[in-house]
């Protein structure tokens, strides 16, 4: 969060205390995602979308009016609950509206937002702090959210009457295990980054809790007979689904590691401010925003394997180029490498997401979206934690940059190795009565 120092000064609090405003938001998002999986079919997509927007707007307004660090943390957490409803829901609604034939095209368009969001956020935050009070970082979301609410109320199709919705029983025990389990894992990684060590008790305690809770959920999901699990772990028996979420998880980890390492390099090696560093790393997001719509649309016609493999190769070579950068290297080269790594990641992300949704029957789209977003949260936390540890244990910033991008190179090499497992060009969607399995994943 670009405003941590500003907030600490304005609210008369320590940096670690104010940091919980971001951590609380992240944990709330992660904890809410599994609930959204169940609620979208119980209450309807339109109702849930409007409810999520209302909660997010209320949290944004309250955060902008916060009077101390404690109130800011509480209101940011409320904002996170709203985001936890909206984040997976947008993919669920888009995937259901598009259908298997246009999954790649729609996921590619959605990828524009996913690519530019992490890049434009720090730039916008730096611009706001340069001319306005910190409160406007949150208050500006209110009018934007209200416009989105009015448009959604007008455009989204009406849900069936609540009484006619299928009576899906909520797996309360599964929710009590899965939501805090993933949140604990994210917390462990966040604490690793904050304390600069994976052996700190602040990281080990939530890590142990997360492992226990998630293990309990898997056992519960496999043994449940009466209540359908929030996420059916048998989904991972399907080769295409497992390959898809693995590629997206590894790609997300590599992406967040890149987006965290680059601005630190520009700030520490070249002395740039937050806004300038954000602008210099923008080509990484721009590359993804350009590549994802094109690659997604093309994957609907030729399949995902070739595009994903080509994209992983380009991204891997770009990451390798970062390991050759020296202190006196012209800044034009890392900017160019950032653009090409974004292009490469976009070329394997959109086709993979499209193939993932083509491998899922309609009733399991919500579960697939939840898995994607939870892995995205873990990837963000793990990428930041690993890069933080690498930089803190490196002799200088250039050595740290090289080590961070060797990690990115290895991750993308693993993505490349997994691309042959994606569904081939001819793919028949699974039936609506069973999870996607290897029988429908092409050759």
UniProtKB/TrEMBL annotation:
Keyword Transmembrane helix recorded: yes
Primary location class: membrane
Record's subcellular location: Cell membrane
InterPro entries, sorted: EmrB-like (IPR004638), MFS (IPR011701), MFS_dom (IPR020846), MFS_trans_sf (IPR036259)
Family according to the record: Belongs to the major facilitator superfamily. EmrB family.
Keywords: Cell membrane, Membrane, Transmembrane, Transmembrane helix, Transport
Protein name: MDR family MFS transporter
Membrane topology annotation: Multi-pass membrane protein
Major facilitator superfamily (MFS) profile domain: residues covered: 1-427
Keyword Transport attributed: yes
Species for this entry: Streptosporangium longisporum
Listed transmembrane segments: 20-40, 47-67, 73-94, 106-130, 136-156, 168-188, 200-219, 240-266, 272-295, 307-326, 332-350, 371-391, 403-422
């Amino acid at each position: 969060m670009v405003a941590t120092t500003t907030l600490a000064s304005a609210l008369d609090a320590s940096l670690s205390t104010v940091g919980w405003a971001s951590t609380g938001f992240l944990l709330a998002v992660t904890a809410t995602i599994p609930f959204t999986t169940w609620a979208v079919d119980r209450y309807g997509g339109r109702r849930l979308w409007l409810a999520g927007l209302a909660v997010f707007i209320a949290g944004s307004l309250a955060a902008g009016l916060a009077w101390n660090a404690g109130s800011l943390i509480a209101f940011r957490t409320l904002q996170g609950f709203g985001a936890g409803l909206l984040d997976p829901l947008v993919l669920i609604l888009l995937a259901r509206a598009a259908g298997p034939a246009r999954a790649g095209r729609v996921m590619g368009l959605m990828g524009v937002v996913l690519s530019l969001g992490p890049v434009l956020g720090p730039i916008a935050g730096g611009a706001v702090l340069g001319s306005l009070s910190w409160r406007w970082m949150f208050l500006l979301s209110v009018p934007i959210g209200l416009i989105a609410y009015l448009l959604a109320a007008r455009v989204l199709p009406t849900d069936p009457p609540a009484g006619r919705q299928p009576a899906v029983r909520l797996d309360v025990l599964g929710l009590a295990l899965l939501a805090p389990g993933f949140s604990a894992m994210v917390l462990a990684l966040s604490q690793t980054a904050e304390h600069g060590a994976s052996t700190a008790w602040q990281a080990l305690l939530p890590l142990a809790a997360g492992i226990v809770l998630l293990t309990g959920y898997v056992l519960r999901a496999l043994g449940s007979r009466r209540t359908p699990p929030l996420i059916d772990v048998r989904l991972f028996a399907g080769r295409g689904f497992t390959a898809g979420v693995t590629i997206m998880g590894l790609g997300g980890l590599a992406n967040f590691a890149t987006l965290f390492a680059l601005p630190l390099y520009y700030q520490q090696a070249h002395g740039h401010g937050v806004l300038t560093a954000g602008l210099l790393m923008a080509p990484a997001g721009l590359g993804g925003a350009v590549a994802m719509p094109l690659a997604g649309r093309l994957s609907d016609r030729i399949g995902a394997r070739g595009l994903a493999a080509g994209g992983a190769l380009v991204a891997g070579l770009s990451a390798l180029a970062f390991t050759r950068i020296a202190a006196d290297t012209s800044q034009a080269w890392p900017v160019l490498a950032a653009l090409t790594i974004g292009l490469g990641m976009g070329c394997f992300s959109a086709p993979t997401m499209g193939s993932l949704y083509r491998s899922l029957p309609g009733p399991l789209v919500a579960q697939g979206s939840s898995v994607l977003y939870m892995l995205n949260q873990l990837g963000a936390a793990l990428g930041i934690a690993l890069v933080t540890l690498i930089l803190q244990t490196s002799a200088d910033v250039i050595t740290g940059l090289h080590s961070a991008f060797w990690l990115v190179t290895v991750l993308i090499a693993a993505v490349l190795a997994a691309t042959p497992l994606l569904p081939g060009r001819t793919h028949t969607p699974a039936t609506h009565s069973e999870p996607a399995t290897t029988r429908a994943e092409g050759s």
